[in-house]
Amino acid sequence: MPHDSALPNERPAFNGRMWREVSYLLLGFPMGVLGFIVTVVGVSLGLGLLITVVGVWVLAGALFLIRGLGVAERGLVRSLLDVDIAEPPRLRDLRRAGDSVWRRPLALLSDGLSWRTALYLLIKLPWGVFGFAIILVALVALWPLLPWIARLLSSVDRLLAAALLSPPPLAERVRELEDDRGAVVDTAAADLRRIERDLHDGAQARLVALAMDLGLAKEKLTEDPETAARMVSDAHGEVKLVLQELRDLARGIHPAVLTDRGLDAALSSVASRCTVPGGARVNADLPGGADRASRPDPAVEGIAYFTVSELLTNVSKHAGARTATVDAWRTGDRLLLQVRDDGRGGADEQPGGGLAGLAERIRAVDGVFVVDSPLGGPTVVTVELPWRTRGATAGRA
After folding, report:
1. What are the sequence ranges of the domains in the chain?
2. Among 58, 63, 139, 212, which is most exposed with the fewest C-beta within 10 angstroms?
3. What is the reported pTM?
4. What percent of the chain has pLDDT over 90?
């Protein structure tokens, strides 16, 4: 597994890590030659032709190849040197309707990581030749010192790769936000489809049937008042069912108790509907009531409410639990939630599953979602959310 640190802490020894380091150093020579040729020839030719339109495309093409070599180098560093270097945001395909044909080459020319990768490849050749030669000598003549030599040389490679091949923090943050935005859009679209389906299959269908029944009752009002009265009575009962369905649907969108009384009361309402035999208990230390200024942002409250609601639904349906507990409290500028049950355990974030969807929604607002569910239980799901979102904070300032 890759490590976060660029420099390993363990003592050099004859082990798998040493042989991975040796392999990387031996590959440094051919990779250095390839990268040097592509960089020098491509960039030199492109710069020389910049007085013409062709030069822009040649230089952009060279930088495109350089980015590709950077991807290969990051892969080698991750697999052989155990340094986790994130991939940069990919250059989007800008050849869409209405886009300028110049946007793609200009994006490459203005990409700082491409130029830093070019610098890395220029440095890689002399350093790769040096490392290749030293490691060969160590393999033949300095065998007892091989682990220490391999560690020293590969540490320089780790530092070079981390400094020149890593995307800047801002670019990495942009990529995370783009991924989170996609997850939020997908979740919102799924929620809209669910609401549309519930309205179409439930309340709308009942209202259509109700209108037809009332129309028949109107026709029978003069000729058969008793039958008409019975039909109106049936329609009255149907109206109650429609109203209940609409209330349930509205509760699924945004419950009134959450708006009026805050998260504490809303979580208690959710817990009261949990069907585990021993019931669900709520321990909340949160401000509530009409004082909106002391409460979390409405968006955060909504996410917290629906997260707990879905977690308790999962407990009721799948956990085989006897009891469940919901804890909610504030720590600094963070809202903490924890849902526990004494069920069978084994819950995890499977792709496409309910927990994975909750995790995406939480992480989209800079939250944390952690599932601890060993087989046999208990299951503990911890959620951490910002108390104030950035936009709301700025708006209140």
Report:
1. 16-167, 176-253, 257-396
2. 212
3. 0.47
4. 25
